[in-house]
Amino acid sequence: MINTEVSPESMPTVKQLIPKLECGAKTVTRLPHGGFLFLEHDVPSLLIYRKKENDSGTDRLIRAGASYLIVGSESFQYYKTFIEDLTTLMSDNFGSFILLEIFSGNTGSQMFKVRGPSHKLPVSLQVLKNELLKIKSRQYNVNLDVCVEQTKTRQTVSEKPLLEISHIKQRGATLIGLEVPPVFRDEHGQVFPLYFRDFQDQFITAIQRAVFEFVRVQTTSSLTNYHALGKRSIHEEVFKIDKQLTEIENSYQFLLLVAPVNIQVLRQQFFDSQFKKLDRYHYRLLPVDPDILKRKLYDLRIDEIDDPAISFLFDEKRAEIDQELTMLKERGAKNFFYSSIRLYSGLDKALLAEAELILQNIPENHNESQHALIDTSEFGKLAKQEFDYFKDQDSHFNSKIHIRDDVNIMMVSKGELYLPSDYTMSKNDAKALIQHEIGTHALTYYNGSQQPLTQMASGLANYDALQEGIAVLSEYLSGGLSGNRLRILAGRVVAGAALMNGAEFHEMFFKLYSQYDFTKERAFNITSRMFQGGGFLKDIIYLEGLVRLRNFLMEGGELEPLLSGKFALHHIDVIQDLRDRGLVLPPKITPRYLNNDDFNFKIDKLKKGLPISKMI
Asked: What is the pTM of this model?
């Protein structure tokens, strides 16, 4: 990157700043009188904005583009020459070059005005019009419209042209003027922050899609996707906010803090009393003050991030952390349950129907407990073998195994494995759980930790469902998904529905034990997990995630790119955007099951619509 500090007295030329264009390079430099250039050398387009007073928000619109120029408040002739020389340089290199000057319309206007050679660029300008019309407006009492004007006057009427049409033609370039209705601010110039974020995101997408049509047809550029016309680099301040978000989330372990520490005692008490007696859940002391963390959380200036994709991800994550901190304060109270419904978006009727179908079609195997069992120590050795498999792929991989008395479930937290000291399982279950916990949760944590954004390791908002969907799918792909295991996932959904209908602990236990024929141990485990914290719906997402993932694969999605970190299916487009911009990297390590002889066969069956109940 060529990064130059320029004093207001100097007047650097294009030739001085950019002696030659280099693939993968960029020029970032201040220019006289408040001007600024951010130029990706391989992008044959430029967004231009003339610096003005009382024009809040408009300059931020262009900062989300890959290449942009802010014209200083003085020295018009200097900037005119600068743009002419830059246009010559870029056109000579790419065969053509497109410039878009962005300026705001009058207060009260709700009309985008596109000024350009519509007869020469019918496809690009039609794409621009269609995409601008998609910007959210009606729910904000705004009714946006777009008109395309074929005119040689590309700038606002009161301004001089930055490029003469004759010069543009000589250089084989194109200039488009775009008047933006300032609906994102009030009559006093105050920006509406929430609407502006939506507006900017959709506005820059419209620009990118239209420009890409021009680039694809008119230039020699090798860009393959409109996402490449977005921001490629992340400002240092964005990295700082990313790390601060992660530090706040890493200061507490949510799942560990909502899990009871006395579950083994409660289980023994419940069984010894013939399913009658159950004492209160006891929890770990909170190592943090949720209110202080919330204060830190909302001190983060996410609203000032000009990259729409990252701004969206961070804002969404902040809301999720806020919700978790609220739930930590509510442990053991009824409000915890209501917050849980909000965090996991309730329970869909179609998912409940799927769960009931599984329980009807797959009988409980009561003899499974008689199979050869392995204990926690033996499972830990299997986990170590899997860790070594990852280390062979990347020598930097490292993780630990914790065997503890105060853990009631097997889980991975921050990439490390936690095991209950009294846990036993069949060898088949062990094979499945290795891929579930290590081959998915530990793996995606590590892959996420290798990404530029630390949030990819700790997890973007609502990542749990996809994570658990991949984890259960890995059990199927490794040949370890049993009928009883699938029944447990279905039982959790049925239990979640019962919880939402007001069921008490004993009522839910007997529903699973008597009506659905679960063993007393499985019925207790499902029920006790559902009541931790005061009512916790997280367990429904295992089956929900599997169903959604199966549907994603049926629609042509691929599995391996989902292993690059922790994110949700609704983030796919944003992740693709970041991947195209080099901000999300391919997975460093991959799970063992990808190399199984029957991997492609099993995936093909899923893509053809294999019913969930047939995955065992």
From this structure: 0.79
